Amino acid sequence: MRVFFIGFGQAGGKLVDMFLSQDKKTGANSFRGIIINTARTDLMGVKNIPMEDRLLIGQTKVKGHGVGTDNVTGAKVAADEIDTIINAIDRRGTHDIDAFVVCAGLGGGTGSGGAPVLCRHLKRIYR
Ligand SMILES: Nc1nc2c(ncn2[C@@H]2O[C@H](COP(=O)(O)OP(=O)(O)OP(=O)(O)O)[C@@H](O)[C@H]2O)c(=O)[nH]1
Ligand SMILES: [Mg+2]
């Protein structure tokens, strides 16, 4: 199965970074994915994701500092910038994939608020 990984928030980004690292180790080179966060430093903290596959959202609201576990704000930011998120996914290519895997730690705000918003839109757009 060809999978497109989406890491939302810090824990989600770390998980996707880990999947990519495994993919490199096995030499499979089948990885595709992006990571999304409202915190600039967390986006910079991962090791394996190319810079162009890291998306910072919510800059006007939280200025790159994260949503401080407030998942209502996390959901709002994701909804406000859903077109930017969907475009970033499209740009990476989705025509040949079988599934999306959305990763998020539920204890924070960016991932726990944003991931359900994103999933709802993915369900609407893709069969
Ligand atoms: N075990 C473990 N848990 C982590 C790690 N990174 C984050 N978490 C947990 O994941 C949950 C979500 O936290 P974050 O991923 O930082 O939250 P976020 O989605 O970035 O949202 P905000 O930080 O509120 O903007 C929390 O319960 C964290 O403690 C990690 O490396 N290991
Ligand atoms: Mg965070």
In summary, what is this structure?
The chain is an alpha/beta fold and 127 residues long. It has a single domain (21-125), classed as Tubulin/FtsZ, GTPase domain (Rossmann fold).
Counting H and I runs of at least 4 residues, what is the number of helices? Answer: 6
Total number of strands: 4
* Order of H and E elements: EHEHEHHHEH
Taking all Cα atoms into account, the compactness measure Rg is 14 Å
Our count of domains comes out at: 1
CATH topology: Rossmann fold
- The CATH architecture is 3-Layer(aba) Sandwich
CATH-level-4 superfamily name: Tubulin/FtsZ, GTPase domain
Mean pLDDT: 96
Can you tell me the CATH class? Alpha Beta
Mind describing the biggest β-sheet? Answer: 4 strands, parallel
Cα distance spanning the termini: 15 Å
Structural class: alpha/beta
Small-molecule binders: guanosine-5'-triphosphate, magnesium ion
What is the global morphology? globular
User: In percent, how helical is the residue content?
Assistant: 40-55%
How much of the sequence lies in strands comes to: 15-25%
Strand line-up in the sheet with most strands: 3-2-1-4
